[in-house]
Amino acid sequence: MKPGETESWGIHFFEYPDAQIFQSTDALRRLAENPESADLYRFIPGALQHIAFALASEEDGLALRRKLNGHGVAMTDIYDQGKIRNFIFVDNNGLQLEAAWMFQSKKV
């Protein structure tokens, strides 16, 4: 699988019947209540921490948040990382995902 129009080989996923996925839904709910929580920087060595993907615009990011919110998905606030804005949520398998987009300041 290739991630769009790129020379990269992309990401390969493998499933094992006995694999255990560490749930982070509770940690995300704590982050939503307290965005400064230390939970933001915790990870399990040797395990998948999260998968990040880029969105084309802030409008796309906000639309995704509305859709996820409509389905009751736990997610963090939007974080301002300088040129990038992002938020974290979990998919239906408990995997932590990050949606990110480039911040474009509006010209007045």
Short description:
The chain has 108 residues and is an alpha+beta fold.
Class based on secondary structure composition and strand pairing? alpha+beta
What is the CATH topology descriptor?
2,3-Dihydroxybiphenyl 1,2-Dioxygenase, domain 1
Structurally, the number of domains stands at 1
Helix content: 10-25%
Number of helices: 2
The overall pLDDT average reads 75
Report how far the terminal alpha carbons are from each other: 41 Å
Strand content: 15-25%
Shape: globular
- Largest sheet, order of strands side by side? 1-4-3-2
- Unreliable spans are none
From the 3D coordinates, which CATH architecture would you assign?
A: Roll
CATH superfamily: 2,3-Dihydroxybiphenyl 1,2-Dioxygenase, domain 1
- Name of the CATH class: Alpha Beta
Order of helices and strands: HEHEEE
Biggest sheet: strands, sense, closure?
4 strands, mixed
Radius of gyration: 15 Å
Overall strand count: 4
Oligomeric state of the chains in view: single chain
Structural notes for this entry:
The protein has 108 residues and is of the alpha+beta class. The protein has one domain: 2,3-Dihydroxybiphenyl 1,2-Dioxygenase, domain 1 (Roll), CATH 3.10.180. The chain has two helices and four strands; from the N terminus they run H-E-H-E-E-E. The protein has helices spanning 25-33, 58-70; strands spanning 51-54, 79-80, 84-90, 96-102. A four-stranded mixed sheet has the order 1-4-3-2, with no helix packed on it. A hairpin with a 3-residue loop joins strand 2 and strand 3 (84-90). The radius of gyration is 15 Å and the shape is globular. It starts with 24 loop residues before the first helix and ends in a 6-residue tail after the last strand. The model has no long low-confidence stretch (mean pLDDT 75).
